[in-house]
Protein: Metalloregulator ArsR/SmtB family transcription factor
Organism: Marinobacter xestospongiae
Amino acid sequence: MTNNAPTPSIESTNLDSLAPIFKASGDPLRLEILRVLRRDTFGVMELSQLFDMRQSGMSHHLKVMNKAGLLEPQREGNAIFYRRPLNLDSDKLADQTIRQIFDMVDQVPMPEHLQDRIEAIRLQRANQSQAFFSRHAAQFREQQELIAAFELYAEPTAELIRQRASRQGWHTALEIGPGEGGFLNVLAALCEQVVALDNSRDMLAKATRTCIDERLNNVDLIEGVTDTLLARGDAFDLVVANMVLHHVPSPADIFLDAAALMNNGGCFVVSDLCSHDQDWAKENCGDLWLGFEPEELTAWADDAGLVSGESLFIGLRNGFQVQVREFWKSTGSS
């Protein structure tokens, strides 16, 4: 028997792929969810808290949106968080449509009450991280070396910075989250003025002792967060974040703040863990996030107007991998 059914055209097949996207996005609440996921990653309970609704109801919305490709799950140990998809293909009509939906949603200002709730969740995360370092300041090096010995990522990062500094002529540098201050001697040798910023008083005391012992007289240690420096109007040629992003409430915001704190032509150097599944790191090392996909860092940098440069990947014997990345601020940036 001959099958006379018409073969679907490419156009109709593409249109069929669009229907679930428009159906899943045809709800004001779901559009609000997409908006809050612009830079942040939230769990089901956090999203339920943001939108003041039952977890079962939120889970239903997330399931529909995930199936349509509007968001994707990200496992953090035993918890599931949600984010916008990282890899959208510019050649696929469905992915183009999703990107257009994101662009339109992002043009709508965030309601003040929603922004306040987001800040409350970030504060909860920050307090959790800060409490950990207050409790374990005396064992900081031992705790961190459960994941990676300092030298394994510090030396490749330092070498990358030295290569760039020889050509760029940097004068000012900022290290976000210096810990015990082990990397400050590298920056102090390359730049006339260095600022070390940390929100943990206990860790800042350790960094102060390091500066005294090593006679790093051009380092200014400040207790606070990036907003502290933005309010002062500081600007730097180089910003460094060594193994810091997985401890901060909103890693994407660090990219935005680094861009705002850099002079034109400045460089943001990041070393951090690649995404992993070793959940014990949260309790034993105070990690808020189990590493990051390289595409996440690239997307956050793009959103902050930074251009990706060199990437190094360092494999460790215990199953972790460290990525060292550089991101540049265009000389034409405002």
In short: Residues 10-110 form a domain with the Arc Repressor Mutant, subunit A fold (CATH 1.10.10.10). The chain has 14 helices and ten strands. Strands lie at 42-43, 72-76, 79-83, 172-176, 193-198, 219-223, 236-242, 262-273, 306-315, 321-329. The chain has two domains: 10-110, 140-329.
